[in-house]
Every structure is written in structure tokens, then in C-alpha cells.
Amino acid sequence: MTDSTRARIVTVAAAKGGVGKTTLAYELAAALGGLLIDLDWDSGGATRMWGIDPLARKKAPLLDGFERGPDGFAPKPLRKNNQPRLVPGHPDLAASDIPDDLVADCLLAWSETWDASHVVVDTHPGANPLTDGALQAADLVVVPVILGMRELDALEGMLSEYESYRLLLVPNLVPAVPPKRLVERLASLAGESITVAAPIREHRFIRRRLRRSALVLQPNPGVRVRAAADEFRAVAEHVEVASG
Questions:
Q1: How many folded domains does the chain comprise?
Q2: Which of 27, 28, 47, 231 has an alpha carbon 20 to 30 Å from 81's alpha carbon atom?
């Protein structure tokens, strides 16, 4: 597979937690028909959302894959109906001493072997070697944005650090009537060089739902699910274009 036809790497990153990063990564991977790589070691991450307790499994595919390096076999994604294919994370990633350049080299090498158009990488909030490596390998960095003063302050600092990356900002958990001054500030931070995707509204039922199926893959969705799924699909269309 050549570089022009390998899977595009889409890294979902945020300066702080609680911005809906994991749900966005989960739905994007499903909407794009891609793979979801879980580099977020917290217990509330995509791996448990998918239905896996990593501590109950004998194998840790990502840890084993990084140990083998970019010339070894790529981790085999797990499959389940109505959910994105997943390479699960593991809590031991938190204490691992994996350098960022190894993470980047592995993701780039693996993306040439997986049968997918996109690889979506969910990361741990803030700066750490795993996230840094996923950023280095990314064709596109997707940043969920909450329209709040502190969240936009964090975004401003993040944008100054990420200015060398191709970015897509996604207004997330947006209230029905967002404050005009915060919408204007987001537009000012993005300027003319950073794309802002269609917003995802605040669908409170998402945090309460027990079903593990991706919203965009759920069969026979109701009105609420269909509305939310359409918004995630709209963002996925932005990602397809922006990631090349």
C-alpha cells in the first residue's frame, strides 16, 4: 500500500478531559468505516465503551505491538456488529515508557497493513508521549471544542502548540442557544487557516445510554438517535475531506 492509498490517520486530541473526545472518536471511526485505536488508558475510555474489561484479558495488543515495533505484526482489530473495529487500550499504557517516535512509526507502519480507509486514534487528554506520537503520525488532528471560557482558554494554548498540524475543530456539546461571544471567540481562534466542522449539539441522552452500539450504526434508530447520528456523520464528511 503506498502512502497515497494507506489508511488516513485521524488523531482525536484535547487539552483537557470532559469535552466528549472519546464519544467523538468512537462515532467517527464507525461513520468512516475505519478502525479505532484506544491510547486513552482511563477506565472511561473507548475500550470499556466497546464492552471490554482490559484487565480481564490475557493479552494487551497495543503494548505487544509497540514492543514488537513498526517491523512487527500490527495488532489485530476486534470486530463486533454495530460497533467500530477496535484495537483496545490497557491501563498499563499509563506507566509505559514508550517514546513518541516509536508510537508514530508504529501507527504509520500499521496503517499500511489494516484494511481501512481511516484509522481514528483516541488519545489521553493533555501532553504525553503516546498522544505526541499519535499527533506526529496524524494526517488530521480533530479537536472537540466546548463553548466555555475555560475550555476556549485551553484551546487557545493548544492551538499555539499544534500550529504545525492540520487541524479540524469540532464544536461539541453545543447548547440550543450558544452564547454569541463564545461563538465569536471560537471563530477568532480558528481564523482563516483552521477549519471548524459542523457542530454537535448537547444530546444528554448519550451520557445515559446503556447500548454500546455506535449511534451512526444503530439499526432502526429513534428520532433522538437519528438526529445525533446525522451530526456525527456530518463531522465525518468534514474529516474525509480534510484528511485527504
A1: 1
A2: 231
**Amino acid found at 141:** V
Cell 471544542 maps to which residue?
145
Q: Residue 21: give the domain boundaries.
A: 8-242
Residues 86/50, Cβ–Cβ less than 8 Å: yes
Q: Could you give the count of Cα atoms lying within 13 Å of 60 in the half-sphere of its Cβ?
A: 15
What digits encode the pLDDT tens for the residues 102-144?
A: 999 999 999 999 999 999 999 999 889 999 999 999 999 999 9
Residue 234: burial class (beta carbons within 10 Å; 0-12, 13-18, 19+): middle
What's the rounded Cα separation, in Å, for the pair 244 and 239? 8
Please state the pTM of the whole predicted model. 0.94
Rounded Cα–Cα distance for residues 88 and 48 (Å): 9
Q: Which three cell numbers stand for residue 169?
A: 475543530
β-bridge mates for residue 122, sequence order: 12, 38
Cα(66)–Cα(55) distance, integer angstroms: 18
Question: What are the grid coordinates assigned to 173, written together?
Answer: 456539546
